């Protein structure tokens, strides 16, 4: 296993994301040997912490407080803390000194990763200072990881892009979408382009419709303040859902390289039909959860406006107008406080053109490919086949591919963040959204958002109850096309 040499500077090093995701992921990379001797991490934030205190936080965050073999302590010894005000130019000079010193000490060779795990309103100033204060090196690579939300609409996303681009050219920018680090999301191209049975059938001649569901049972938890200004459309559709849609609908990339994959995805997103304002209501449904027997409604959540009109549920019908996919409805759906946590794709194939078995009770069903992403990775193909016995009846059965692993091996499955951070260290960009992808996805999202904002007075919220699959209108959206949700 090749050790990656890098100095990682985390802006927002005391934050929730760093502690919940980044430190455990870095520790896993350490345990697997991807990080070893030649790496160091500088955590920065406003509050004054000592290195010792920071290292205690790291050891706790990696869930190894007992640290029997001293591995967590060794790992944490590579961590340094620097109190930092992102607007203060002098602070960058101090940061540079520390960075150069650590680069020397750990013989890193100038490779730097800057992780912006802070509010996007600071991205511009941080990027500008990193450049002007010479924190970018000339001896190794410089890469910047940007957390979501990447913009609030098309315009703000483009401003962010420009601000970052002043200091980092596109090939140095890694925009995190953690869904792209999920095993089964990464599996979509393998399934589509690695098997001729799917390669051959993946088009409007054989696919009836595609359904993408990202349902959550949790509510907004402690994130009401952010969520109430965002809503489900921005929080889950613009990024995760459209990224999955692009993987499902893109044409085969020329080769499996960053540039070719990105180009294929860009073309898919560019082909999204952008709705006219009057078309939005026929193609999109929004919802907000009301109280359940033991759960508060959205409007009762902390930091949420008591008469908030923010949506916590979205269902929509998309069209990707390429030669292969035009005419295939792509139904998407996401929401908080739904029946269960499930991230999945259902690809519904058309029925055989002529049913030689005749009609009757014994009807043929659609073949459906289920790609289960969360909570358990699983692939399942629903088929018609004859039942065993004298009569000629058929039934729907499934071919199942379980990726479930015994509990003791679970720790070996890399987490999304771990895979994505390793991608950055190795300079692999295909699992990150490019600026063009952002551009097209935001254009699409804005068209829905603007139409919704205009008609906000027509909405009656809440309109679905905790633990349901969303408002009835989400079912009607498919029924009017003669379809239904597979899940
Ligand atoms: C985040 C959203 O991007 O994804 C959250 O901001 C959401 O609102 C989360 O809960 C879901 O991620 P996962 O991996 O648990 O499906």
From TrEMBL:
Substrate binds at residues 178, 182, 216, 235, 336, 341. Keywords: Carbohydrate metabolism, Glucose metabolism, NADP, Oxidoreductase. Pathway: Carbohydrate degradation; pentose phosphate pathway; D-ribulose 5-phosphate from D-glucose 6-phosphate (oxidative stage): step 1/3. Residues 9-187 form the Glucose-6-phosphate dehydrogenase NAD-binding domain. Pfam families: G6PD_C, G6PD_N. One of its GO terms (molecular function) is NADP binding. One of its GO terms (cellular component) is cytosol. The active site is at 240 (proton acceptor). One of its GO terms (biological process) is glucose metabolic process. HAMAP family: G6PD. This is Glucose-6-phosphate 1-dehydrogenase. It comes from Ligilactobacillus equi DPC 6820. The gene is zwf.
